[in-house]
Amino acid sequence: MTSTTEPAEPLSVEQLTATTLLRFATAGSVDDGKSTLVGRLLHDSKSILTDQLEAVEHASRNRGQDTPDLALLTDGLRAEREQGITIDVAYRYFATARRRFILADTPGHVQYTRNMVTGASTADLAVVLVDARNGVIEQTRRHAAVAALLRVPHVVLAVNKMDLVDYRESVFAAIAEEFTAYALELGVPEITAIPISALAGDNVVDASANMDWYGGPTVLEHLETVPVSHDLAHCHARLPVQYVIRPQSAEHPDYRGYAGQIAAGTFRVGEQVTVLPSGRTTTISGIDLLGTPVDAAWTTQSVTVLLADDIDVSRGDLLVPSKDAPPTTQDVEATVCHVADEPLTVGHRVLLKHGTRTVKAIVKDIPSRLTLDDLSLHPHPGRLVANDIGRVKIRTAEPLPLDSYADSRRTGAFILIDPADGTTLTAGMVGESFAAPQPVKDESDDDGWDF
Question: Whole-angstrom Cα distance, residue 125 to residue 300?
Fold first, then answer.
């Protein structure tokens, strides 16, 4: 490994503003070289500081290694370094001249499935690593299944350690074919396979001279050029109200604005909107963006919306176009990943947080638990324990305007919270999943519900 070169000139504020943002997550089994890939990506793109590299070199020497162990750039916990595995989600922020990145380095162990769900839940792309010597294994299929469940738009299959199989094209082709067929069955919309050696740096940032049979992009080239649909202009427009702004000052005596971050779509002045769950309709009379009036605003922008009519709107309400309003319901069916150590059971009383709204709820039924190894369904398990993925039916105390997670990852998602101590129990995705169970007839009587 060559020593690091002088760091590249830092990007200016103008350059950073002009570039798009890509959120991506990495996943791989133990010893697939995932943390090494992340370290190599940061190192070769000159996205690490000199003192960081010196610290890694020092730690590597203490472990008897002649060259820096780039995995130490992400495996920050002492237990991770001692065991050589990734336990927690490590977030890294870096940028090139073409794009800004938020990287979530997620663990691959089955007992840390909840950590992968956390890291991949907001990702635009997932990088799944495979050891070229082992091919597609059980954990590889599990990672593909989680990416499919979370509707990650782009998946990269990084076939690592090609140097240990003499850079043979036939090995790469067989692994890529097997993984692609499986991922397409799950409904993954786009798969890109790249042969790499994270340790040697082949096809990570720079093209490999050892694999002239490969004509595709390097990992970084793909990350820099993959389409990112942050504007979501064609999605259902949704604005969860976070705060009501009423200055009541001499300058703004009658100002009443409703602030929040647009979750999806575009809002325009003059557009008729509906406030949910109340169902009242009005018209947008103005939109303020960073204190400046604008005619339109779109996804991820934080805005203040002014309405033509003085109606009751408060935190937790959802502003939507009147012609494209989602139905409201108190009965939620969803795929969930249980993240708490305490089991989730039928009859469990919880708080359900959707957007900026939190309501009381009861777990009515757990129709099935999903086995990620073979995508089989265990019917009516009665409870979900940590890292379990399953189907649930929930009854809420108040109606909620819910989109399907397949239509909107922002407004189709929710979390369940322990009302006693505020602990997050479960992450949920509204609607059907790729492994949705057959409808289970619920013979219980609803008369016992207290809301």
Answer: 18
Closest CA to 180 of 135, 149, 216: 135
Pairing of strands 154-160, 125-131: parallel
Q: From CA 333, how far away is CA 51, in angstroms rounded? A: 50
pLDDT in tens, 398-432: 999 999 998 888 899 999 999 999 999 999 999 87
User: What is the pTM (predicted TM-score) of this model?
Assistant: 0.79
Q: Give just the sign of the alpha carbon dihedral 35, 41, 46, 47.
A: negative
Q: Residue 257 in 3-state DSSP? A: strand
Give the Cα separation of 107 and 30 in Å (integer): 9
**């663990």: which residue's tokens?**
107
Helix and strand counts by DSSP (H, E) for the chain: 8, 25
Is residue 392 helix, strand or coil? Answer: strand
**Four-point Cα dihedral 230, 234, 240, 242, nearest 10:** 40
CA-based nearest residue to 128, from 207, 198, 29 = 29
Q: Where are the alpha helices (DSSP H) in 282-420?
A: none
Which of 185-199, 243-257, 368-382 ranks highest by mean pLDDT? 185-199
What's the N-to-C CA distance of the chain in angstroms?
65
Q: In this predicted model, which residue has the larger pLDDT, 201 or 44?
A: 201
Contacts with 412 (C-beta within 8 Å, 6 or more apart), sequence order: 402, 403, 404, 405, 406, 429, 430, 431
Query: What are the C-alpha distances in Å from 294 to residues 67, 112, 144, 238, 289?
Result: 54, 45, 42, 18, 7
Question: Are residues 128 and 29 in contact, defined by beta-carbon separation less than 8 angstroms?
Answer: no
Distance CA 361, CA 319 (A): 23
DSSP letter string, 29-48: -TTS-HHHHHHHHHHHTT-S
- Is there a cis peptide before residue 277, judged by omega within 30 degrees of 0? yes
